[in-house]
Structure formats: C-alpha cells, structure tokens
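Read as chain and fold; for instance:
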Amino acid sequence: MQATTAYIRETLRGTYSAEEIRNLTRWIFEHVCGLTLARQILCKDKQITETEKGAIRRVVERLSSSEPIQYILGECEFHGLRFEVTPSVLIPRPETSELVELIVRRHAETGLKVLDIGTGSGCIAVSLAKMLHGATVTAIDISNDALVVARRNAEAHEADVRFLQADILSESSLDKMFRSVVFDVIVSNPPYITEREKAGMEANVLKYEPTQALFVSADDPLCFYRHIAARGRKWLSEGGRLYFEINAAYGKELVSLLKEMDYLDAELVRDISGKERFIQCSKN
C-alpha cells in the first residue's frame, strides 16, 4: 500500500496540491480497495492486488488529465447522502448543502409543496424530500440526460420526487401545468457564472462539467433569477419562500431586483466561509 501511495503522490504532483493528493488517495483506496480511512491508517502494510493496482492506475491516469474524481468514481457525497454523478450533471458542492440546510432550518411545518428549478443530479430535491416532513417535491431541468441521473438518485434514496423536463426561460406549458398548483418553497441553483469569469476557473470544471449548467451571458447575468422570480409571483403561495444560490458579484443587484418585484425580506446569506452565497425572500 505504501508503494501505491507513493506512486499516486508522484504521478499527481504538479497537477494537484499536497492536500488534494491526500484526499484523492483516500478516495481511491476507499473506492477501489474498499478501505475506510481508519483501515488505511491502521493497515499501511496491506498488499494491494494486481487487479486493484490496475484499477488505481486507470483512475490516476484520468486524474492526471484533470478529470474530476467524482466523475471517475461516478458518485459524490452531498448532505450525508451518496449521489450518482455523470458529466451530464454538475458535481454537487458543499456550499449547496448549506442551501439545503438553510431551507430545512426555516421550515419545520409538515406537508410543504417544494419546487426545485434546474435540479441537475437531483441533490437538492432528493435531500429536501428526505428531510422535510411530508413534503411534496417537484423538480425540473432542461436536460433529459440530467433527469435520468436525478431519477436514479431519487430511486436509490427512496425519495418521492416528481421530475419534469422544461426550460424555465421559455417553457410556457409549465404555467398551464402549475395553474392550479401553489408551492410553499421554490429553490434554484441556476447557471450564474458569466463568460468573462472563465479565465479564473479551474481546468477540471471548464473541461468536464456541463457548460449549460454553469454559464450565463455577461449581458444578462440575472436572466434565470428574473424568470424564476416572475414565475414565483404566480406559483408561490402567499408568504411562500424563494431561495437562490447566487454569484456574489451580483448579490446586491439581485436583492434590488427582488424588491422591485414586490418580494419581501430579501436577504443575502453568507456561506460558512463568509461569502455572500444565497438569497432568501418571501412573496408579498
């Protein structure tokens, strides 16, 4: 095991930081060899089989090209649950888990109707379906490939989520579909990175994650928020809550937009690192 650890470290040096290599090594041994972190610490002299060595080499080769470990292993942990991920969906981030927690803390009531817009892997919708008492959760996404993954995640976690394919920017049939439905919570983590911000992004994100779920035109960076907020005026119950994950560069601008659209108590919320990451507000 020590020789394999040295191989991983030497091969990935220069592509990843020392801390990243330590984490990647842990994940590789856990996924390929079935070794928990405790067993990795206690069994450093364990012999790695030739089959395991071959599998590790294949993982490391893909990592050397900056492919995300989550896509290589096909899974990611989010809010205490394991989710399938493919290149059709964004890799769930820890910050988005904070958005789930923000909603759960706010809503102790039973029987909420929840809508997740741009569900991707389904991580938000599935987590809320598991954590909110008696909630009815609906999730939409423009990508059918993403919805295939999201449905598998819901099935794996026995979460009752209704999935629909729709484009929130142009889908008029949703207005008909939701004409007699009111939601108590609408949540979205929409595309919010502008094209001009690409230069500062990591290669593994730019090369492998779905651009449709990441980027928005710099000419109209709030387009998704504006469309979702407009639909929220129709679809939210009185006092219903709207939650967004945001680009901090446009936080104050988005707060102003929501106030102009007659939402109440529009509030910027910081994540655990102190960055303005979320907005919450309520329908007047």
Observations:
- The longest strand covers residues 236-245.
